[in-house]
Amino acid sequence: MSGAGAKPPDSAEPGTVWSVSIVVPPERVGLFEDALAALEGAVSSREIEEGRDWRVTLYLECPADAAAIDALLAAAAATSNIAPPRAEIGTIARTDWVAYVEERSPPLEADRFYIYGSHVRTPPPAHRVPIRIDAGMAFGSGSHETTRACLVAISRITDPGFVRCALDMGTGSGILAIAIAKRWAAARVIACDNDPVAVAVASENAIANAVGDRIETVVGDGYRTARVMAAAPYDVIAANILAGPLIEMAPAMAAMLAPGGVAILSGLLDDQADAVAAAHTAAGLAHADTIALGRWVVLELRRDRRT
Q1: Stated pTM of the model
Q2: Which of 8, 178, 245, 285 would give a disulfide with 89, using CB separation of 3.0 to 4.6 Å?
C-alpha cells in the first residue's frame, strides 16, 4: 500500500494491535521515526540489509488512521525533498503481541552494560551494569547501533570520579542518562527532550532503574532550555540525535561543556562524521575518538582542561 492513500484492513478482531510499516534508507530513519511517533504509538526500527534499507514500524492500540499517516509521511518527506515512503498497514492479534515483542527484544550487551526488557527472567550477568528498558514510545531501547555505540563510549571513560553533572540531550527513552547515572554514582543528570511523551517515558525508566533521584527529566528546546542552561557546565554531554541538528547546535553544546569535559555525539552515518566533527572542532573541541558500528558512528570530543 502506498503512502498516498494507504488503507487499513477492512476489519480486525477485538484487542488487535495495528501496525504501520515503512522502508527507508538509513539516513532517513530518525526523520520517519519522529513522524510516526506523533501518532502516539510504539515505534521500532530494524536494519533490513546492512548499510542499506531499514524498516520503521509503528504499533498502535487503536485502528490506524490512514489519512493521518499519509499526511505525516508526506510532511516528513517534504522537509527533505524526497518522495513519501510506501506504508503497509496490518494487524497483530493481541494474544501474539507479547511473544512478538519478546522475540524481537532479546537482552544485549554493550561493553560494560547489559540491556534487557522486563520480560527477561534470567538475572543480569554479574560483571555487567544492568539497564532495564522496554521497547516503547520513545527512541532508545539499546538495539540501534547508535545507542549501543554511545554506551560503549560511556564505558570507555574510566575515571571513577570524573562525572558530577551530565546532560543527555534528546534523551528519548532515557537510556543514556540512566547509563551515566549508573556508571558514576555521584553524577546528577539532566535528561532533555522536546517530546513530552519521551520525557515521561525517560522519567519512568529512570525510576524503574533506581536512579530516578539523580536524573531530572526536562521538556525543552535544546540548549536554549532554561534548566539546561542553569545546570551547565557539564562533565559529559551525550546527544544521540541526527547530523544536521548536531552541526547546528555545536557552538551551544561546546559552550556548555566543562573544561576537560567529554561530548558523545551520535545519530550520524559514516559519511556525515567529518562534517559533524568539523563543526565541533571549529567550536573549540578536540576530536578524541570515533566508534563505528556498521555505517553508524559515534564521535567523542573533548574540551581542553585549560579552557
Answers
A1: 0.72
A2: 8
pLDDT tens over the chain, length 307 residues:
334 445 545 544 545 778 889 998 888 887 888 788 777 677 777 777 666 788 888 888 777 788 888 888 998 888 878 889 989 988 876 555 555 555 656 778 888 898 888 777 788 788 888 999 876 544 444 456 788 889 999 998 877 667 899 999 999 889 999 999 999 998 999 999 988 888 998 999 999 999 999 999 999 989 999 999 999 999 999 999 888 889 999 999 999 999 999 999 998 888 899 999 999 999 999 999 999 887 788 999 999 877 6
Distance (Å, whole) CA 103 – CA 260 = 42
Domain assignment of residue 46, given as a range: 16-103
Same domain, residue pair 131 and 84:
no
CATH number at residue 55: 3.30.70.120
